[in-house]
Design a protein that fits this description.
single chain, 2 domains, DUF2771, 4-stranded antiparallel sheet, Immunoglobulin-like, 7-stranded mixed sheet, elongated, transmembrane helix, membrane, alpha+beta
């Protein structure tokens, strides 16, 4: 079957038009993706049937050259005796990090610190203490930087805060 010259021209024009539209679409898509703001790593917190996304209150590059301090303290109710479950992004779980849990108990405020090695945990549960009964007031997750102070302690490059009371 042989196509008439007019049909060949129409098909060639249509093919060229589709190619131009496709190239334009991908060029616009590339510019939008290239210029978009990078998303900061977020922690997912879950307790008593509710889940929230926790953005960092502070997030810096490893050497503290570029920082963002746009986040705020997240709030999630955690009744006494129920756990707070945290799911961590790889940017956090693949690095050494520390978790600080603050409790209000019969002897006043108590802060419990737990350190984690790279890859040790991608999720953790923070339990409300029941003996003696203590209410979990909040959790702070810290990611250290490569910059240290005069005592050799690292400055924090990222912090996630969750108020649970």
């Amino acid at each position: 079957m042989r196509l008439q010259p007019k049909t060949v021209k129409i098909l060639a024009l249509l093919g060229t038009g589709v190619l131009v539209v496709a190239v334009a679409f991908f060029a616009v898509l590339f510019v939008l993706v290239k210029d978009s703001d990078p998303r900061l790593p977020a922690v997912t917190a879950y307790a008593y049937g509710e889940a929230i996304t926790v953005e960092p209150t502070r997030y810096c590059e490893l050497d503290l050259t570029e920082c963002s301090e746009e986040g705020s303290i997240a709030k999630l109710q955690v009744p006494v005796g129920y756990p707070l479950q945290l799911s961590l992004p790889t940017e956090l779980s693949d690095a050494p990090w520390r978790l600080y849990a603050t409790y209000d108990g019969p002897n006043g405020l108590e802060i419990v610190e737990q350190g984690y090695r790279p890859g040790q945990a991608t999720a953790v549960s923070v339990r409300s203490k029941t003996t003696p009964e203590a209410k979990l007031l909040g959790v702070e997750i810290r990611l250290p930087s490569s910059v240290v102070d005069e005592n050799g302690d690292p400055f924090q490059r990222a912090v996630w805060l969750i108020e649970t009371a």
